[in-house]
Structure formats: structure tokens, C-alpha cells
Amino acid sequence: MSGLRLRNVVRHYGGFTAVDGVDLDIAKGELVTLLGPSGCGKTTTLRMVAGFMAPDSGDILFGERRMNDVPPHRRNTAMVFQSYALFPHMTVAENIAFGLKMRKIPAAEQMRRIGEAIDTVSLRGLEARRPGQLSGGQQQRVALARAIVTQPDILLFDEPLSNLDAKLREKVRLEIRELQKRLGVTTLYVTHDQVEALAISDRVVVMNKGRIEQVGAPEALYRQPLTSFVADFLGAANIVSGTAAGDHLVTTPIGRFSVGPERKLGSGPVKISWRPEDMRVAAPGAEANIVGARVRGVVFCGSFTELVLDVAGQQLRAQVDTGFRGREGDLLDFAVPSDRIRVVA
Amino acid sequence: MTDMALAIPPPHIRRRIGLKGFLVGLSVALLLVWTAVPLFMAVMWSLVNPDDPWSPPAVLPPSFSLAQWEYVFTFSEIGKAIVTSFVLAPVVTILSFILSLPTAYAIGRLSFRGKEALRLLILLPIVLPAMVIAMFLSRTFYAFGLAQTFLGLVLGHTLLSMPYMLRILATAFEAIPQDVIDAARNLGAGRLELVRHILVPMVLPGLMAGSVFTFITSLEEFNLTFVIGTPTFQTIPTVLFDYLGYHFVRTNAAVVSIVLMVPSIALLLIAERYLKTEYLSSAFGKL
Ligand SMILES: Nc1ncnc2c1ncn2[C@@H]1O[C@H](COP(=O)(O)OP(=O)(O)O)[C@@H](O)[C@H]1O
Ligand SMILES: [Mg+2]
Q1: What is the ipTM of this complex?
Q2: For residue B6, is pLDDT > 50?
Q3: How many CB atoms lie within 10 A of CB B275?
Q4: Domain total for chain A?
Q5: Which ligand 1 atom is at minimum distance from the Cα of A34?
Q6: Domain co-membership, A284 together with A215
Q7: Do A294 and A204 sit in the same domain of this protein?
């Protein structure tokens, strides 16, 4: 078991830069997620860690050891593929045994570890089936068992849940996290689903166009996005451009906002951002950070009601509780607490 | 009769069943005309008793005998031809496999310029008229002293039947998902282990199917064999030609036809089993 470090890793495809200087430290036993839109370089990064391709520049280290020139079969990583990539001509048991066989583990120990892995992912009774005779969820479990049975130094996941239906996805997500914690294995996890990333990770790395946008624990990232990209990609965000007018004041086309005291602004153009759930209907007589908005849409979402608002031509979103009795066309005052407003790049 | 009458579904369903039934019936009928009827006729003709001729109005020969079989095996080179054909076909199949392997791997797994052109080029020996190829090839074979030699026959047949092996094998290589190969490497498989545990088993159905097609093509090849092989070498088709051309004897031709058809049909049935092996797609289809 070891930590994983990426040092200024760059990878091109022809003239296109898919991974553009990624620096990342993952501690022993930590689960870190690469999160970003499709095409931002997540899979490429993962494949470089697994050794399927080499970085054009930069280093990949497992613990203190530089791995750039180590072929994939000597890296002791284990990857769970989006497609599962099971061996179609082998049974479930043979699939799980493959990594042990390659490592020349004695037969008796192989049997023991395969049995353990099969129990861990609840596949008892299906050992003799072939992948083609399994459901998607079962195939996913085989892929997971096949990976953990080798006791890898580093566990890699490439969108492992994207082919499961929503209910199953949540269940397996929890199981993967539990298993990972129990094994204490260093894990690099890739997804484009922000909810999944927030739910499963110790830390999340938001990627955009081959670069790291921001790294942080799920809550910190959600509460304190540094860029409008992060604010928008992690959940929904209202993003408004304006001008700094003093240390804690921003003037925008839709009004003046006082922002949290933790950062001095100076002057010049800035962007501010807040979450829809932080915007509420203003109490009568309130004066700070008030936005007068026209209600354009009222959407009941079960546990909350989503409002689409129009303020001087700018569209905003608000989440209010389901007791909201306003209608489309109403003109209402909304308040945004200043400690919930983030200044973003 | 009454049971059937009761089982007739209401009109709107009946119409759909009618069309479907018609199409199924049509395919079965075509298949029969295609294979079963010729085979049946050949068997009948081959069993005609020479002392009790079979003439048109009779549906079946009036009596059966093995006289035609005895005659053909006594007075023709069919015995030697069978040996030649069944030595030639496996040798050609193995040679085709060895020659196809690198190209099939390259087409299936590597990307390079001109790949699509190469794919088409491979098809040429299949789409060009066999007689034309035979005529032009024979010149070359005579020039190199390969005519009237067994080696010449092997090379000629290989050239003509290899496209099947090449195409099917390339498709088999292509059908292996890169993820599966990566997964094997990820789990500790080096180059040799990858070949042994993943590549070979996964292309095996393709290899079997390709072999059967190659084998059958060699078995049935006539044009080139006729031009560069006879009279030194006879194969089953050239013996058949003797009975069809110079002195046409339907009963004797029927015997040779059966000798030619039965192994081909048997082999095709074997290939069918391998072509049906769905594990290439099955592992990844359940998304
Ligand atoms: N083999 C390849 N050849 C050329 N471009 C590629 C290749 N693989 C990926 N890319 C490109 O590199 C970028 C990053 O790809 P990838 O790492 O797969 O992104 P992600 O996994 O985040 O969706 C994408 O724009 C993709 O089109
Ligand atoms: Mg990807």
C-alpha cells in the first residue's frame, strides 16, 4: 500500500493537450475523485497511473518510487473499468482468479482469497457463470471482486457506476466506499457525476480542459468554490458579474451585495456566486442583499420547490420550502445572506 | 382438423401471422431448393440401378443399387483425388492461418494508414472471377516451375482461400475490446500471458470459422487446380468435371457430387456452431 503522486503530468494526443500539468498528492488509504465534464482528461490521467500510456512529461510516483517506465503488469494497481472489461471466455471464478494466477499465488491461497472476494461482493452461487449470463449489476460486482482480490497498492475506478440504473448506483456507491475504507486502499476514482463525487470521496479534484481547477474535501469544495466553473459544476449556482466597490461590497447590474468578510476585494471586475438553496424570500423590512425578482417558473421537486427568477434580464434560481405560495408573474423580494456569497474567478 | 379450426386466431392477428408464416415458409422453401433438393437428387441418381433405368415420370428410381458407386471408385481416379483433396485442404488451411495471423492482427488491433484499402484489397480474390484469376496465375506458376507440382497447388489454393481466413480472423481480433486487453495487463499479464490467456482463446471461434471456410474453399476449388494441377493431380472437383464435361454421365457425377458435398456441409455445420458462440458480444452487451 502506498500513496500516489502526480508531478506536473502532461499528455498530448497529436496536437491536442488532454492532460495539462496535473499535480496531485493522494495519501495512503485516501479516496480521491477526479470530477469533470466529459473530455476533460480524467480517463487519460487514470490510464497513465495504470501504465497503459506514458506521460509526455512529468512523473508518476507510487510512494517514493517513480513509475513512469514500469509496465502496467508490474504496477500492482487494479482497475475497475466503465465497461467492466470482464474476460468473456472465463467463468466468474476464473475472472476473479486471473490476477492471482498471474501473481503465481499458490492454489490453496487462491481458493481462499477468491472465496473471500466472492462473499464480499455477494456473488455466491454464480461462480460457474460466464459474464454473458450475468446482469449489469452482477458484472459490476465481478469487476470489483477481480480488482480487490489482488490486494492492489492502488485501486482505480473509471466511472464504474455509469452503466447501472439510478437506484443501484446509490447502493453500489455506498458499498464501494465501505469496502475501500475497510481495505484502506489508496484509491483514485473518476466520475462526471458531482453527487457521486461528493458522496464517495475524501477529497474531490475538479478538472476542466486537462487542468485541475480546484481540490478540496466535498463540503469545502461545495461551500467555497474558487471559480465559477467549480461553483457551477458542483451543484447549481447563481453567478453574477459585477465590480468591487470597497472591501466587502460588490456592485452588480441587479443590485449591491455585501459579501463575507473573509476576503478583501480591492477594486475591479469580480464575479459572485451563491447556491439556489441559500436564496430565500426576504422578511418584510429586510434591507441587506435584497433582490427584487419576477417569478418566471415554479417547479415542485418533492422535498423543495425550485423557482426560476428574472432580475433585470438575468435569470436566477432559488430553492424554497414547499410551503411557498407564490405564482408565476409575482414580483417578490429575495435575500441572500452575505456569508453565503462567494467571490469566484 | 377440428382442432386446427378452433385454433385459428381472430382476423387481425391472423393477417400478421399470415405474413410472418409466409416469409418463414418462403425461406424454408428456398433453403430446401438450395440444398436439400440437390442433395436428395444426387443421392437418388447415385443409387440408380443400371439394369433398371430411372426415367422422367417416376418420382423415385424403380430400384436401388450401389453399382454407380462401384463403377466410379473402380474406373476413375476418385480414390486418389479424395486423398489429394484431403491432404491439400488441411495444409492450405494451416498455411493460410500462419500467413494471415500477422496481417489479421494488424488490421484488427493496430491503426495505420491505408487500413481500409488493405481490407478491400483482401477481398479481390473473392470478387474477381475465379477463371480469370486462374488463367493469369497459371502463367506465373508455369514461369516459376510450380505448375504440376503439389507445392504449386498448395500455394494457389492458399492464395484463393486465404481471404476468408484473413477477414474472419481480423474481425475476431477487432472484436476484442481494448479494455479487456488492458484489464488483463492491469491484473498482471505480460505479453506472453496476454496472448495465451486472452488473445488466443478470444479469437479461437474466429479461427475455427475461418479454418472451415478456408478448408471448404480449397476442397471445392476447381479452376486453378484444373489449369495448373491436372493431369498430374486430380482433386474431387476435377474428377467431377470429367463426368460433367467430356462424357456426361449423370449417375457417376452424382456419386462424385456427394463425395464433394457431404464433407463441406458437415464442416459448415461445425462452423455454424462457432459462429454462434456469442461471448464476444455478450460480456459487453448487458448495459
Ligand atoms: N486515443 C485518443 N486519441 C485522440 N484523442 C483522444 C484519445 N483519447 C482521448 N482523447 C481526447 O482527449 C480528451 C480527454 O479524454 P479523456 O481522458 O478520455 O476524457 P474524460 O475521461 O475526462 O472524458 C478528449 O477530448 C478526448 O477526445
Ligand atoms: Mg472517461
Answers
A1: 0.87
A2: no
A3: 15
A4: 2
A5: 22
A6: no
A7: no
Atom of ligand 1 nearest to the CA of A44: 17
CB contact under 8 A, B187 and A99: yes
pLDDT at B283 exceeding the cut of 50: no
Nearest chain A CA: its distance from B182 CA (Å)? 7
pLDDT digits over B83-122, tens only? 899 999 999 999 999 999 999 999 888 888 888 888 888 8
The CATH number that applies at residue A30 is 3.40.50.300
CB B191 within 8 A of CB A154: no
Residues A218 and A243 grouped into a single domain: no
- Least confident span in A83-87, A213-217, B67-71: B67-71
Say if A136 falls within a structural domain: yes
Q: Are residues A189 and A248 in the same domain?
A: no
For A173, other C-beta atoms within 10 Å of its C-beta total 19
Is the peptide bond preceding residue B90 cis, with omega within 30 degrees of 0?
no
Q: How many angstroms separate the alpha carbon of residue A43 from the centre of ligand 2?
A: 4
Does residue A301 sit within a domain? yes
Tell me: pLDDT of A1 over 70: no
Residue in chain B lying closest to A95 (CA): B184
Mean pLDDT, chain A, integer: 92
Supply B204's cell numbers: 479461437
Residue A248: per-residue pLDDT: 82
Average pLDDT rounded to a whole number, residues B270-275: 69
Q: Hey, what domains does chain B have and what are their CATH numbers?
A: 11-69 (no CATH), 77-284 (1.10.3720.10)
Ligand 1 centroid–CA B185 distance in Å is 21
Q: Do A213 and A263 belong to one domain?
A: no
Residue A28 has pLDDT above 90, yes or no: yes
Q: Please say which residue of A193, A223, A253 terminates a domain.
A: A223
Which residue in A has a C-alpha nearest to residue B198's C-alpha? A87
Kindly report the CATH number assigned to the domain that includes residue A315.
2.40.50.140
Strand order across the beta sheet in which A331-335 lies = A280-281, A331-335, A290-300, A305-311, A314-320
Distance, in Å, from the CA atom of B110 to the CA atom of B98, rounded to the nearest integer, reads 18
- Do A242 and A155 belong together in one domain? no
Q: Is pLDDT above 70 for A239?
A: yes
Q: Do B282 and A132 touch (CB under 8 A)?
A: yes
- Mutation target for A interface from B186, B199, B274, B277: give the one with most A CBs within 10 A: B186
* Measured distance CA(B22)–CA(B252) in Å, rounded: 38
> Do A186 and A246 reside in the same domain of the chain?
no
Structural element, H or E, at residue A202: none
Cα(B202)–Cα(B105) distance, integer angstroms: 13
Residue A287 belongs to domain spanning = 236-344
What would the mean pLDDT of A247-268 be, rounded to a whole number?
A: 79
User: In degrees rounded to 5, what are phi and psi of residue A205?
Assistant: -110, 115
Determine the pLDDT at residue A12. Answer: 96
3-state secondary structure of A272: strand
Residues A335, A290: one domain? yes
Residue A112 within a domain: yes
**Mean per-residue pLDDT for B130-138?**
83
Here the cell at position B173 is: 481480433
